[in-house]
Write a structure and sequence with these properties.
By secondary structure, the chain is an alpha+beta fold. Helices cover 18% and strands 31% of the residues.
């Protein structure tokens, strides 16, 4: 087995054999006056709260580091050091390391260079390889006390341990950590955190449907999105949680937790360990390895999550009030282009640099139509724009109009503010210095869009 870095037990009398602590989260001790208590009763008494806590940790929090457990390289000693900290594993154990724990990288390599699946890179002076650090739960017996071996043997005594010390084991494993599996795939896909599953190279249809629903929600007006997103969240959370199952024990036996014991929590990848071979053994060389802790899962305190969620209540920024083009007003008749804006625009801002009209023909491709001259005046209080063109597109052509609200020259609202065009009626907010382009596409046979 890989070398243990250091066990965190502080007891010099701890027995290192595995200890199975009682857990029975659904059976509580029911006491009454004069009740005779035995070992089984006391195990039920302590196993009930322990089982409840582990169920809560495993299913509602999951595996992850709570605090600490940082990893350093001690260059002068050639050691990898794991610092104190607290974590939870996948079966709900609390993993507490109370003292720094180290392993000599040269000694570790000498012991594990022939492990199956471990193929280090050979260098001119030694070897180069990757590894990863894991932590797992261990309970040890400690504090021996005199004990009567059998209740009917009178004064015959023996010694038994009176405490179970919860501690941890740390291991350095060859190669980088394997990818971490995470639950709630549908929810993660809804929020854009997962890619769709593949079936023989083809995306699964259910996942494509979730992506389509996500895109349709994003296309809704901002004030309609939260309710639709909540409805989708509830639906997919129900489907995902229904698929969650406890891990199967030996021969398919039912368990209570999402993972079996023992299970390991990855703390970090250790990339690019360089060792030189010397007459006294393997020695850590430079450059030093890179510690990548991003592969570990981490728990964020609930109070912090509450505050982070406030960022989601920002709302849309206020619109500066620039004019917008009404899409349904766009008309092209012969050589005259007309459209209406929601607010008056400056006549001299309507130029070939701010208004682009082009058409597409399957025979000739794209062609651009220029404005003949800026309009002499604007009707209906400066909102009715009528522009003469230097030509006309052929019948049936696909016509595209772009009115600029961005770039070095834009269509402007009237002074003194001269706000840039904010785009179309339902577009995003514009600012006092940055508007949005209005784009509109239609066929020439349409009198209006």
């Amino acid at each position: 087995m890989p070398q243990v870095l250091t066990q965190a037990s502080t007891s010099t009398t701890a027995q290192q054999a595995d200890v199975q602590l009682p857990i029975n989260p659904f059976t509580a001790l029911q006491v009454h006056f004069g009740m005779l208590l035995g070992v089984d009763d006391l195990e039920t008494l302590e196993g009930y709260p322990r089982g409840k806590l582990r169920l809560h940790n495993a299913w509602l929090h999951g595996a992850g580091v709570v605090w600490g457990l940082g990893i350093d390289i001690q260059e002068e000693r050639g050691e990898l050091q794991v610092n104190p900290g607290l974590a939870l594993d996948a079966s709900g154990h609390e993993l507490h390391l109370d003292t720094p724990s180290c392993v000599n990288l040269g000694a570790w390599y000498a012991a594990h260079k022939d492990d199956p699946g471990f193929v280090p890179e050979i260098t001119d002076t030694g070897v180069k390889f990757d590894a990863h650090v894991v932590i797992r739960f261990k309970a040890c017996l400690t504090r021996p006390v005199p004990s009567i071996s059998e209740p009917c043997e009178g004064a015959t005594q023996n010694v038994a341990f009176s405490r179970a010390q919860e501690t941890v084991e740390l291991f350095l494993r060859p190669n980088l950590a394997p990818p971490r599996a995470v639950p709630y795939h549908r929810l993660r896909l809804l929020f854009g955190l997962d890619d769709p599953r593949q079936d023989d190279g083809t995306p699964v249809q259910e996942d494509l449907d979730i992506i389509a629903e996500r895109d349709s929600i994003r296309a809704l007006p901002p004030d309609e999105q939260p309710k639709q997103l909540l409805a989708a969240f509830r639906r997919y959370a129900a489907l995902d949680s229904a698929e969650l199952q406890p891990a199967s024990g030996p021969e398919g036996a039912s368990t209570l937790f999402p993972a079996l014991d023992p299970n390991e929590l990855v703390l970090a990848d250790v990339k690019g360990i360089l060792l030189n071979e010397t007459s006294t053994g393997w020695v850590l060389a430079t450059p030093l390895p890179v510690i990548d802790s991003q592969v570990r899962p981490s728990h964020v305190a609930t109070s912090t999550i509450q505050e982070l969620l406030c960022a989601g209540l920002r709302g849309a920024p206020a619109d500066a009030g620039g004019p917008r083009v009404i899409a349904s007003s766009v008309t092209l008749a012969e050589k005259t282009l007309t459209f209406t804006t929601t607010k008056p625009v400056e006549r001299l801002s309507l130029t070939d640099e701010t208004i682009f009209l082009s058409y597409f023909s399957p025979e000739t491709g794209w062609a651009e139509l220029k404005l003949a001259v800026p309009p002499e005046s604007l009707g209906e209080g400066g909102t009715a724009v009528s522009l003469e063109l230097d030509g006309a597109p052929p019948a049936g052509a696909l016509v595209r109009l772009v009115v600029r609200g961005t770039g070095p020259q834009t269509v402007l609202g009237v002074g003194p503010s001269y706000l840039p065009l904010a785009g179309g009626e339902s577009g995003p907010p514009g600012t006092a210095s940055q508007g949005h382009d209005f784009s509109h596409q239609f066929t020439l046979t349409q009198a209006r869009s």
